[in-house]
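FAQ: What does the model actually see?

It sees only this:
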Amino acid sequence: MTDIQKTSLAGQLAARFGDMLAITTVRNETVAELAAADLVAVATALRDEPAFRFSELIDLCGIDYLGYGQIEWDTETVSSTGFSRGVEGQAQGRFDWAGRPRGNGENRPRRFAAVIQLLSIEHNRRLRLRVFCEDDSLPLIPSLTAVWPGVNWFEREAFDLYGIIFDGHPDLRRILTDYGFVGHPFRKDFPLIGNVEVRYDPEQKRVIYEPVSIEPRVLVPRTIRDDADLMQAKAEAADDWQRN
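And it is asked to produce this:
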């Protein structure tokens, strides 16, 4: 290991934690992946040890990798009528984790993860931690409220939207959706129309929960690619700017 590698954040993390962390650095952004069982111990060390001093937790969010890398718009081929307007492949909401497509090169063994953004003011450094939940049916990771108390509401948000349970959280309950809400709306298999609808009944003088009555529709995003026409337009615009 060179002197530069030893003084880099990735090098310091590797020297201190060894095999506990899987470290990658892309575009000067350091990411450390670790097991849920090691999260609290590693987080405490990152906060307290002089070499790191990650005193602030900036953000924590959940991730659902169901449908990761999948797309339903065909933009690589074109016909006389334009790009595809139908469903060419499969995307989230059309399959479960066990039946997910495997043709995109991604074969992630676990579905849910939590990503934690840390800041060291003392060393002017940032670090991203990623922790996968071991059980897809009951996603569970330890709470970090004992390490950074400000993560309280972030963990509640990840629980509300993704259904990730933070073991040891002092008050784990919904924070954005109603307490009677069914499901977790940021999961990729959550229906766009929802599961229930709510209305106020003037006769009963209370809010009524009913099965959703909206007809489901196929809604897929359109992906714009850099095709030859766009590249030519950019080149012509650059020529016009140089001439003027």
